[in-house]
Amino acid sequence: MENRTPPFYFNLTMFVNIRHYRLVAFTFCVLLYSFIVSANLLLILVITQHRALHQPMYMFIALLSLNSLYGSTGFFPRFLMDLLADVHLIPYPACFIQIYVIYTYSCNDLTILSVMAYDRYVAVCHPLHYYRKITPKTVVVLSVLAWIFPALLVASVISASAQLSLCGNEIQKIFCANWNVIKLSCVSIDVINILGMIVTITTIFFPLSYVVYSYLRIFLVCWKQTAEFKGKVLQTCLPHLVSFIVHCVTGFCDIALSRFQLEEKNPLAAVILSLEFVVIPPVLNPLVYALNLPDIRRHVFGLLQGSKR
Questions:
Q1: 189-218 burial string, b = 16+ CB within 10 Å, else e?
Q2: Which GO terms describe its cellular component (predicted)?
């Protein structure tokens, strides 16, 4: 088949399905984005300002909020512009930048959640060695690795996708997605499929497996302990488990949407599902941690009450 040169623009075709609701959708999404930015910034501010919260668990929560800001900022400004536009063309380089930001955001969430699982595992299963194993240096190293490792792997896949010869420019999505671009290829995608599988295993299944393993060990330790001990563990681990489950469910919905072509059967449902993993975790995470962890809740409410005076 004849190779084609890359298109100058991609056309995001799914916006046609929300054309009649775009003003309502725009208003709602502006409010949503404002909440995401405000809530996550508030959580980061509270954790960084109060010395009592300068502990590994809280620093990892701040890192999760920082990643939410990163992912949301990589998605919402462009999405809001597209909602008001009549033509939904995105330049070729901008499309791959959006893919990179959204994919690294998603992978970062999983690596950060796996680091948080390690922190909780050591705190519950090896409490006497916690401050020897989870030192400030360890926190910095794990935090850096949680960002750099996905960044390098995702970059390798996207750079390979960017070199493909494409036979079209229509992406059935409301944002750029790597699989949708790959489907436009005029040439064999076997190498990219193998590379993508490797990246998926290392950035998704390994972290998922480790989180599950950590909580199985925590569950076994708690099984033989008192009700008071179980209550304390549940209080610190439940928000992390909720974040983990939410990320898994929303990520699965996006993968299922890409593979099973739901947009052809139910376009509106496809739009909603495609928004889930870039909207729900950044909205839910600050609420889960601020409302369920007493130390954070006390400082957040104190800061909000102080700002009203």
A1: beebeebbeebeeebbeebbebbeebbeeb
A2: plasma membrane
Q: Enter the tokens of residue 287.
A: 């609420």
In order of 20, 46, 244, 272, the CA distances from 231 in angstroms are: 49, 25, 20, 36
Quote the tokens at residue 280. Answer: 């729900």
Kindly report, residue by residue over 50-91, the tens digit of the pLDDT.
888 889 999 999 999 999 999 999 999 999 998 888 888 899
Sequence length of the chain is 309
The answer, yes or no, to whether residue 175 has pLDDT greater than 80, is: yes
Taking the whole predicted model, whether its pTM rises above 0.85 is answered as: yes
DSSP string of the chain?
A: ----PPPSEEEEGGGGGGGGGHHHHHHHHHHHHHHHHHHHHHHHHHHHH-GGG-SHHHHHHHHHHHHHHHHHHHHHHHHHHHHH-S--EEEHHHHHHHHHHHHHHHHHHHHHHHHHHHHHHHHHH-GGGHHHHS-HHHHHHHHHHHHHHHHHHHHHHHHHHHTS-BS--EESSSS--HHHHHTTBSS--HHHHHHHHHHHIIIIIHHHHHHHHHHHHHHHHHHTS-HHHHHHHHHHHHHHHHHHHHHHHHHHHHHHHHHHTGGGT-HHHHHHHHHHHHHHHHHHHHHHHHHH-HHHHHHHHHHHHHHH-
